[in-house]
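User: Run a structure prediction on this.
Assistant: Running it now.
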Amino acid sequence: MFPRLLPSIEVKQEFVSGLLSSGIPEFDELIHGGIERGTVTILTGPTGVGKTTVGMQFMKEAAGRGERSVIYTFEEWTETLLRRSANINIPVASMVERGTLSVVQIEPLRYSPDEFARMVRVMLKKMARRL
């Protein structure tokens, strides 16, 4: 049993809404300008269709704006992610070194959804304190 994670009414950081660009004009046009900041976006599809690549492209653009991102990888080893990203000109290793990207490898099914959500929230709070 793990405590249920409920939305916090405390907001300690100003939120700026807007669209996040992928940096690929044709793709952004297909998704009406980008993905909306502050929302949950789920990329779904079979293995090998480019879900991770699309997500990493958004993170690359965020890093270029000086923003930070985190990727939680469940079924792909961090080393594989680094190699595959380098092969398509997404400099994940450099982003990690600069502190604009964190990569956290999670053992699949180790955490309940509430445990995982709490872990993410704790990590984000620690990252926010470093600002």
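The helical segments are 25-30, 51-64, 78-87, 92-98, 113-129.
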